[in-house]
Here is the input.
Amino acid sequence: MEKSIGDTVKPKILIIDHNDEECGIHQFSKAVYRCLKPSDKFETHRGVFDNERNVLESIVYNNPTHVIINKHRNTLRFVTNDTLGVMRKLGIKVMIMPHDEIIEYDRSLIDHVLWLDPTWEPSDNESVLGRPIIPVPAIENRVQNTKIVV
Here is the structure.
């Protein structure tokens, strides 16, 4: 078991994401994971899921202290209030990154909200995460437009 300063267990974060790799929500989760992974303050894992059973199995396997749910109203429909209740009963801190500023869960089941809108005014148990800049590769040998098209 990995220890940190003061012989306390280093927090372990599991990012919960859906499995559509072509989706911007999914790509955002990968960017957040890439930013968190190098930290020596906590251990970070990321999982892509298509059903509740796989989420709960990953929680048992990874034994996280915290989960971050990468949520848009059209993703992770299988993660319900009951799922969050199980996580809370296991002593896991539940955080959510709502991509559409909508939280469909019972707020009493969520420990912290990570808002993505940099103009958001956070209240208690909320933070502004913002949106990390994701580099987009340039298209080589792209045909240049000679006419303005609107």
Observations:
- The chain is about 20% helix and 20% strand.
- The mean pLDDT is 86.
- Residues 64 and 70 are 16 Å apart (CA to CA).
- Strands lie at 12-18, 43-49, 66-71, 93-98, 112-115, 126-128.
